[in-house]
């Protein structure tokens, strides 16, 4: 399923996998949590083989495999319980903005060879069970729905970081934040159409979107802001080129130099501090 989720436009979306959070005297687990600026989705992924019949009314799932029936609890109930606990957890940890987002639960059957049937006449309920491809459609619909007020993306990031750092693995081990939070989409996302990936023209020092033909002088600022929030507070020339999909070392040098950022180290070890982005020194950060 991770493969399918990579197809999503990661702009302003955080995807966290395999979280286990302390709750009262116990823990609760979430397979995948997606947080956007207007919604959050708890996903319960099931990799059953065979054929499946879900009966939401009796909150049961019957799996038939090699002529044997096996009964499980309805995974949607699991997802709903996880969402209720997550909300309480969020309010307890001062993450009210995310806690108050519109929330959805979704069961995803990841085994493509498995057939499934939901025994209900309520379409809205049947829709809560799907395959990975349909999940992408659903998330994309939520992303384009502008009918609810969006919360700042910085709040999404702050909450996601708190969730990832509060994660308690079954076996205590060193886990990096990046392991849980998927990379942002690489490259400069067009600030006009939000779809195209802009390319840099060194001669004019401008960004160009092949999709909507928009031209921008400072499209890299938003991407750098997201990098600072989610990945690191410093960036080297090499990291910049990798994240911005840019080959030219000198273009990267001139872009970074033009920002007058504080620097640390020297020569090849030189890194630029992105702190000014985090304290709102760049005017655009006010609107996020
Ligand atoms: Zn564009």
Automatic annotation (TrEMBL):
Name of the molecule in the record: NERD domain-containing protein
Top-level taxon of origin: Bacteria
InterPro entries: NERD
NERD domain location: 1-109
A Pfam family this chain is assigned to: NERD
Source species: Paenalkalicoccus suaedae
């Amino acid at each position: 399923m991770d493969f399918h989720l990579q197809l999503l436009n990661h702009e302003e979306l955080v995807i966290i996998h395999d979280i286990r959070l302390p709750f009262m005297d116990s823990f609760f687990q979430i397979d995948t949590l997606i947080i956007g600026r207007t919604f959050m989705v708890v996903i319960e992924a099931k990799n059953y083989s065979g054929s499946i019949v879900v009966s939401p009314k009796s909150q049961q799932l019957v799996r038939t495999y090699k002529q044997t029936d096996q009964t499980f609890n309805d995974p949607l109930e699991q997802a709903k319980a996880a969402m209720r606990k997550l909300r309480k957890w969020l309010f307890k940890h001062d993450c009210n903005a995310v806690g108050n987002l519109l929330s959805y639960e979704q069961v995803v059957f990841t085994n493509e060879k498995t057939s499934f049937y939901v025994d209900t006449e309520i379409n809205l309920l049947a829709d809560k069970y799907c395959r990975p491809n349909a999940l992408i459609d659903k998330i994309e619909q939520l992303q384009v729905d502008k009918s609810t007020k969006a919360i700042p993306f910085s709040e999404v990031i702050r909450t996601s970081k708190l969730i990832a750092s509060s994660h308690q693995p079954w076996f205590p081990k060193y886990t990096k934040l990046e392991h849980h939070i998927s990379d942002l989409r690489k490259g400069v996302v067009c600030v006009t159409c939000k779809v195209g990936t802009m390319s840099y023209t060194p001669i004019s020092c401008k960004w160009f979107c092949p999709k909507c033909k928009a031209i921008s002088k400072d499209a890299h600022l938003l991407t750098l802001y997201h990098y600072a929030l989610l990945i690191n507070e410093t960036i080297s020339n090499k990291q910049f080129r990798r994240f911005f999909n840019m080959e030219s070392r000198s273009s990267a040098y001139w872009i970074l130099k033009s920002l007058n950022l504080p620097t640390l180290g020297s020569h090849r070890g030189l890194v630029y501090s992105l702190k000014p982005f985090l304290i709102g020194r760049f005017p655009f950060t006010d609107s996020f």
